[in-house]
Amino acid sequence: MPSEILIADDYDDNRELLRLMLLPEGYRVREARDGRECVAEALASPPDLLLVDLSMPVLDGWGVLAALRAEASTSALPLVAVTAFASEQDRRRTLEAGFDAYLSKPFRTQELLDLVKKLLSERDGVRLAKG
Description:
5-stranded parallel β-sheet, disordered C terminus
């Protein structure tokens, strides 16, 4: 069964771009328009990985991180911060907060695909070790 990725971004164009990068690789994609919708979707049916914009209305990416890490069913999901914040300080702050990875916009398709593949492989390895 293909891995499922939940994209959370308030801009339609950004979600579409990510979707168009992921679908040809065989991933199933779900989308959320804001952080609250992302949390609700993830709690209702946890995806294999989340791509989360840090700057969203209603609930930002930091709030999504806190909400999902607080729930047992989603606490170990790989979360990638996808953001226009591109400084080294932003990257460090994001990773220290608990995101599994950081991807600054703009990024190359191959950069995204390599990161997704790596995180999903790591997650599968943890599942096998626990299983």
